[in-house]
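Need a sequence for this fold. Nothing fancy.
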């Protein structure tokens, strides 16, 4: 029997897969207004970016091919680089067989462009196209991905190749920003999902193959570097469900930003942990000439392909990997260490308790927030301008990457730890049987989706919509 969260790769064990009963399709809440049709694409002017959603055969290695859906015939999709405050137009063509929607993750967008049908953003029917115009904000490392339902089809939604990097350069460059020589964007992803029965009798997705930028270790081009370079690595975990740990043998990471937001206390660490949808921006000083592996710290996940070679100019030989002894990560070390502002006294508490309902041996659980599953979850009403404190308690035996759309929150408490300030994120991983508190200011009126970023959890009820008064 599998222990929950212990294994992620199909190659790591030989248990039989479970036959799954069809899950009820989630319906839109009756209270949600019908989305307006997406605007047609005008003859001119030309857009800043074009995204074409279409079937794509991913070659993770010559021996591992996956039929998927991708943007512009590549995985990850194109880097969308824009300037804070300068409006952009994006033309989206849906050449896939299903209705699609593009969500711009971590941006402050109105619901017409945010890309979540639960908020009221319009879906893009198959065979159609639409033009979207928005003003990018806030600055930093963001991303875009599909926001559709996958349910029992473990090739749809975030299980597909529909993800890409989005970077918003600040309108006013920060004179104190750390210097670096160049940037590298890396996306962690898992492929070939199948539902497997875990030790507690429920089912969860496990994967055949794991990749960085769509390639298994050794199958793609190496990252070629020069001694003395300072390389800014923007790393995204676009996995539909899996938390990943990464290290670069022979090197350490100077963590500058989490989820695209500069951290109050940059730290140098040996490894990074990224929950689904999280981003880490870290500078690596290239001062250990050789050929190295940047890869998943857990051996079975790296063996399933999650790694990329880092090769110094003129270095030769097989890529080297040095196994770190433990999995170590602590968000709080990046928070403000001195002079932290006291907790906001006038924030309004919203208690949110997460649990699951067992649906029988071999079936995925149903997920609940305060005892209810989407679309029956509560719809808290926010007053524009007010500060809110989400008191989140995870009663389940899973870790959950919790995401709030259209806003940035401040992580103010993790588990039993002390109060903390200054750590601004849009995803926080709440470990099993643990609690966390985040605060945010309701400064972007419009329906706001709150959900677990694990595709199978959000599909089975782990969502709710905040409304503005
Ligand atoms: Cu979850």
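Here you go.
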């Amino acid at each position: 029997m599998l222990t929950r969260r212990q294994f992620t790769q199909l190659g790591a064990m030989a248990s039989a897969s479970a036959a799954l009963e069809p899950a009820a399709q989630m319906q839109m809440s009756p209270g949600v207004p019908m989305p307006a049709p997406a605007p047609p694409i005008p003859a001119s002017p030309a857009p800043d970016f074009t995204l074409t959603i279409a079937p794509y055969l991913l070659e993770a290695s010559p021996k591992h091919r996956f039929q998927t859906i991708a943007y512009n015939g590549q995985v990850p999709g194109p880097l969308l680089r824009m300037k804070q405050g300068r409006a952009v137009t994006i033309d989206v063509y849906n050449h896939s067989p299903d209705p699609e929607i593009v969500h711009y993750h971590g941006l402050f967008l109105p619901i017409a462009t945010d890309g979540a049908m639960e908020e009221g953003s319009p879906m893009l029917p198959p065979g159609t196209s639409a033009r979207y115009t928005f003003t990018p904000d806030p600055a930093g490392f963001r991303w875009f991905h599909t926001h559709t339902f996958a349910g029992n089809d473990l090739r749809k939604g975030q299980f597909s190749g529909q993800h890409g990097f989005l970077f918003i350069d600040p309108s006013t460059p920060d004179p104190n920003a750390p210097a670096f020589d160049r940037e590298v964007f890396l996306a962690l992803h898992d492929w070939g999902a199948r539902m497997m029965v875990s030790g507690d009798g429920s089912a969860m997705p496990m994967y055949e193959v794991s990749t960085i930028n769509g390639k298994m270790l050794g199958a793609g081009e190496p990252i070629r570097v020069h001694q003395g370079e300072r390389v800014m690595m923007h790393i995204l975990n676009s996995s539909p469900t899996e938390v990943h740990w990464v290290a670069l043998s022979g090197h350490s990471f100077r963590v500058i930003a989490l989820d695209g937001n500069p951290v109050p206390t940059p730290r140098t660490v040996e490894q990074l942990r990224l929950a689904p949808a999280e981003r880490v921006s870290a500078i690596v000083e290239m001062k250990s000439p050789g050929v190295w592996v940047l890869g998943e710290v857990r051996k079975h996940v790296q063996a399933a392909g999650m790694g990329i070679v880092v090769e110094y100019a003129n270095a030769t030989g097989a890529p080297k990997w040095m196994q770190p002894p433990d999995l170590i990560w602590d968000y709080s070390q990046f928070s403000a260490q001195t002079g932290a502002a006291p907790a906001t006294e006038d924030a309004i508490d919203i208690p949110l308790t997460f649990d699951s309902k067992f649906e029988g041996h071999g079936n995925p659980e149903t997920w609940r927030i305060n005892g209810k599953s989407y679309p029956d979850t509560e719809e808290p009403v926010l007053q524009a301008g007010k500060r809110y404190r989400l008191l989140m308690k995870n009663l389940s035996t899973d870790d959950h990457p919790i995401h709030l759309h259209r806003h940035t929150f401040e992580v103010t408490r993790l588990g039993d730890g002390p109060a903390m300030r200054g750590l601004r994120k849009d995803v926080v991983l709440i470990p099993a049987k643990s609690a966390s508190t985040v605060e945010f200011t309701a400064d972007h009126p419009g329906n706001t989706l709150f959900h677990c970023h694990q595709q199978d959890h959000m599909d089975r009820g782990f969502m709710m919509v905040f409304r503005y008064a």
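For context: The domain at 32-169 is CATH 2.60.40.420 (Immunoglobulin-like).
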